[in-house]
Amino acid sequence: MDKQYYVYILASKPYGTLYIGITSNLIQRIYQHQAGLIDGFTKKYNVHQLIYYEVHSDAYQAVARERCIKKWNR
């Protein structure tokens, strides 16, 4: 089975803050964010709710998509 890459968006309910990330293990990564195991933006601003994800079979394609989403107007 080929490796899959996930581009995902997390949000915080109180503030509507968004976080866009990429991973090869979505379930593990979301758990890490929700458990506060990852220091940084999501832990500091309590951004834990998965609101969107998409699957890519190519890492370069996933990175390009992540960059594209990060350029969106919020």
TrEMBL record:
SUPFAM superfamilies: GIY-YIG endonuclease
Top-level taxon: Bacteria
Signal peptide: none
Family matches, as InterPro entries: GIY-YIG_endonuc (IPR000305), GIY-YIG_endonuc_sf (IPR035901), UPF0213_domain (IPR050190)
Domain GIY-YIG: from-to ranges: 3-74
Family: Belongs to the UPF0213 family.
The protein's name: Excinuclease ABC, C subunit-like protein
Originating species: Legionella beliardensis
